[in-house]
Amino acid sequence: MAIILLDRIVAAAAAVRRVVTGQADVSRATWVAVLAALGVVVATVVSIVSVVRTPEQLAPVTLDAPPSVDQLGTPGPGTPRGQARPAATSPTTAGSPSASAAPPPVEPSTSAPTATPSSASPTPAALAADFAIEDKALLSYGATVTISNPGPVPATRWTLAITLPRESLRVSAVEGARATQEGAVWTFVPDGSVGQVPGSASTRVTFRVNGAAVGATPTACTIDGIACGGLSN
């Protein structure tokens, strides 16, 4: 640009010198060329002065860097090129506090617990028994066992066991119970409603021992495992 400017200045100066000295034919076209050359020279000088005074105006214009892939997001297969997808937001975790409302507090119950009555039946007291011989004959005798209940609860179940000295002896005419034999031991138990012992009362079991009147006295008598009274050894 400097070379072109100097060339224009030299050409303009030569043309002016020829016009002034009369060495060239002065025509209208020549004057136009001379004026144009002077105008170019003046414009060039003004441009040079402006550039020298304000060099920052000629600084190259810098462009902003294009946004990165992380800023725009990765476009999906159906997204046109040049359009950025919005950044994906993380879904709310189902177990986080914001996912579900907190359960309401449980208020303690102010009502008193209802007492449940016990379904177990009361246990009767231990029974007692007394053995006695009432009617002796030549080859037999009658016996009575009195069973007493000292407690208020009726006794519906009990076991009276009488051991005779020999297995050949037989028991008959049983009243107040049901009798079974096993060897020399005879067992008496209540027979339905017969034989139940009311509370604070007693009941009687009677029977007859057949086979001998002498030496046929029971060797043992128990009521629920407790020895009977009135039995002489």
Low-confidence stretches: none
Cα shape: rod-shaped
Number of DSSP E strands? 9
Number of helices: 3
> What proportion of the residues form beta strands (DSSP E)?
15-25%
Radius of gyration: 70 Å
Q: What's the mean pLDDT score?
A: 76
Helix-and-strand structural type: alpha+beta
The span between the termini is 159 Å
Strand order of the largest sheet: 5-6-3-8-9
Helix content: 10-25%
- Main beta sheet: strand number and arrangement? 5 strands, antiparallel
Give me the strand/helix succession.
Answer: HHHEEEEEEEEE
Would you give an account of this structure?
The chain has helices spanning 2-21, 28-53, 69-72; strands spanning 128-136, 140-149, 160-163, 170-175, 178-182, 185-189, 201-210, 220-223, 226-227. The protein starts with a helix and ends in a 6-residue tail after the last strand. Helix content is 21%, strand content 24%. The model has no long low-confidence stretch (mean pLDDT 76). It is α+β, with helices and mostly antiparallel strands and 233 residues long.
